[in-house]
What does this fold into?
Amino acid sequence: MSNYLDFEKSIKQIDDDIASARIKGDEHAVEILNKNLEKEISKVYKNLNEYQRLQLARHPDRPYSIDYIRFMLVDAYEIHGDRAYRDDPAIVCYIGYIGGKKVVVIGEQKGRGTKNKLRRNFGMPHPEGYRKALRVAKMAEKFNLPILFLIDTPGAYPGVGAEERGQSEAIARNLYEFANLKTPTIAVVIGEGGSGGALAIGVADKLAMMRNSVFSVISPEGCAAILWNDPSKQEHATKAMRITADDLKNLKLIDDVIDEPINGAHRDKDTVAKALADYFITQISELEKLSVDELIQRRMDKILSVGAYEE
It folds into this structure.
């Protein structure tokens, strides 16, 4: 693995030793080092703090939407454009089959490498991206196809052009329309779920998170800058905000947590993609037992139950 986080230094050292032993042909040393590696992985990852989970959620090798789509979707066909302005590469839409069931997958895509990151705008959609997502979702509704939303964005793009073309309206429209879709929907946070940019494709019958993903109203850096006028206090902000999958599950803000390898989804992408596909098929099978009226009513009840207040 080419990228190691700060808290993974001991693991990197053992990986380097294993590579060196293999070059020397010392299989006995490799066997011993692999056992040491298993113990070190268990020790390091067993009690990750909130900031370390945030780092894993942002890991450059973590699988993105297209990685999952390529693994899960059979006969995949990409759908482009919002039929109004342009095709936003930060939102990808596909139709295909998962487990023999025809589905639509809509996801946010960050991109790898400098050129592709710029093309995908670092996973920050413009309003036309959200309008494309809505167009494809309405098409899925027309043909009674279930939808899988894959959330992975730092947030909606805040540039002047995006605001001029109605960024806030596009997000608000998606919240309204997705709440009333007449087809089963499942949303999964696969990495970083940031602010309204994530929520714009996060209204669904089921909202789940990968074990090492995060979901927040603002980035920890932004929170630290506002509250303490010091973005360097992001670690403290991450803990205070309670943005990890376990925290949000305990707060009843999400429905489920999907497990991934103890040392992160990037270490075994195929296994993680299979877990996500299995979760989707299982949940869709249950949702399809409901009538359209029951589906929408349950979705609305779930949305209205979020939060707490006192009179």
